[in-house]
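In response to the reviewer comment on reproducibility (Comment 2.3), we provide here a single inverse folding case reported in full, input and output, so that an independent group could reproduce the run without further information from us. The structure tokens appear first.
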């Protein structure tokens, strides 16, 4: 039950602020990432051993099975929860990993990227957040380099919710497929949510091939967030990064 409650808060990004409208956590100052674990007993695992993001390096060769993507159009609304800009997704889109079906719940963005690949930071990273029936989580991460404008971002960006708490419906349902590279090779590691409550046991699937977004698209997102929304790199500890 606890797991289910936590998950609904995470997936729907409610609970971003308390009754007074004050953010419970942030990316700087007293409520910044260094203090997340101490802010609430619910966040204790933020100081755990299997946290995200990480610098992906020292890859272990593995026979990673292709991820089966079954994405339909389903992005219904775009909201600003004060920590990111997020598109909530209608049920009916999923991935299959390890023989388990994970439903796509939402996707959102971080600028600059949270994960690094062999020491490289990217200006933007998308997280496509999925949950299984049992409440296990799988996140597909996609990096963006600065370049051509991204078609998949256009509708959402045109309806960009500028203030924390703003939510705008999307007239045409967005497709998460537009946020996937053509080459679906990926890195895999065991990590956590990168925001409180920092739940561990998350399957991280990081696409090797980056997409592009225009300088304007990247700056637009950064302007709306007012500050970088990337958690700092976490210790890898004993975890292998597979490729
Ligand atoms: Zn994220």
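Designed residues, in position order:
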């Amino acid at each position: 039950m606890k797991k289910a409650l936590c998950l609904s808060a995470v997936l729907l990004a409610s609970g971003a602020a308390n009754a007074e409208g004050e953010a419970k956590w942030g990316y700087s100052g007293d409520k910044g990432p260094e203090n997340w674990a101490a802010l609430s007993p619910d966040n204790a695992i933020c100081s755990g051993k299997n946290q995200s993001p990480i610098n992906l390096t020292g890859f272990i060769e593995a026979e990673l099975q292709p991820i089966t993507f079954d994405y339909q159009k389903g992005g219904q609304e775009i909201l600003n929860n004060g920590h990111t800009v997020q598109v909530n997704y209608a049920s009916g889109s999923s991935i299959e990993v390890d023989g388990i079906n994970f439903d796509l719940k939402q996707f959102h963005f971080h600028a600059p990227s949270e994960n690094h690949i062999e020491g490289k930071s990217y200006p933007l990273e998308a997280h496509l957040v999925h949950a299984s029936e049992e409440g296990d989580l799988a996140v597909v991460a996609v990096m963006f380099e600065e370049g051509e404008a991204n078609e998949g971002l256009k509708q959402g960006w045109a309806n960009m919710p500028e203030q924390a708490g703003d939510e705008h419906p999307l007239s045409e349902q967005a497709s998460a497929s537009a946020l996937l590279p053509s080459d679906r090779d990926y890195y895999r590691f065991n990590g956590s949510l990168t925001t409180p409550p920092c739940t561990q046991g998350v399957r991280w699937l990081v696409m090797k091939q980056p997409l592009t977004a225009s300088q304007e698209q990247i700056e637009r997102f950064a302007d709306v967030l007012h500050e970088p929304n990337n958690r700092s790199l976490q210790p890898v500890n004993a975890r292998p990064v597979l490729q």
